[in-house]
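Subject: Re: docking follow-up (ISJ)

Dear J.,

Thanks for your patience while I sorted out the input files. As discussed at Tuesday's group meeting, I've set up the holo structure prediction with ISJ included as the bound ligand rather than trying to dock it afterwards. The sequence and the ligand SMILES I used are pasted below, so you can double-check that they match what you have on your end before we go further.
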Amino acid sequence: MTQILRTRPTRDDWLAHPPRATVRPRLRPWLLDPGSLTARIRARCERFEVRVVRQAPMRPHPDEAELLGLRPGARAWLREVLLLADGVPVVYARSVLPRHNLRGAWRLFHGIGSRPLGAALFSDPRIVRQPLRCTRLDVRDARYHRAMHLISGQLRLPASLWARRSLFRLRGRALLVSEVFLPTILTLAP
Ligand SMILES: C=C(O[C@@H]1C=C(C(=O)O)C=C[C@H]1O)C(=O)O
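The structure tokens for the complex came back this morning:
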């Protein structure tokens, strides 16, 4: 019998609240904090660093495209970074911006370089964050494998990783930011 792997997570797998039964208590504040993840990490380490892994036009994950109202297969601007606390990767983050949103107000996205996106997002009162959603990524999801690839040799990944995401809107135009928490996030104070 051929096993049909559903591509997941689909939209309905992203939850408004992390389930108490499956999310470790120390991880919950990281999934739920509506503030800047950059600021939260910075407050818990000596040296914070954004390592830009890729910033280029790419096809987003199907559920990302759906959330951004892009037709399947459409390309968008993808920014992938690792956030490091005292030299250790603690988050794999990916931000997706529809290319037609790149002009105008979201042009900040283009030139941000290795400065943390969050610093720009949370300093502009015109930018509104939509509610956070979270999910557990496992080997069925390309983002799990991407995180695995990016930190291969540095960390051993568990069978699944919790992630959160939210839309940021500026003049109605959306940017999707997703943050995958690596096991090392638990070495920081909750
Ligand atoms: C949205 C934020 O920006 C962080 C920094 C990012 C970047 O520099 O690409 C991406 C995602 C976030 O973890 C934040 O700090 O909350």
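A couple of observations from a first look. Residues 2-6 have pLDDT under 50 and may be disordered. The longest helix spans residues 142-150.

Let me know if you'd like me to rerun anything.

Best regards,
T.
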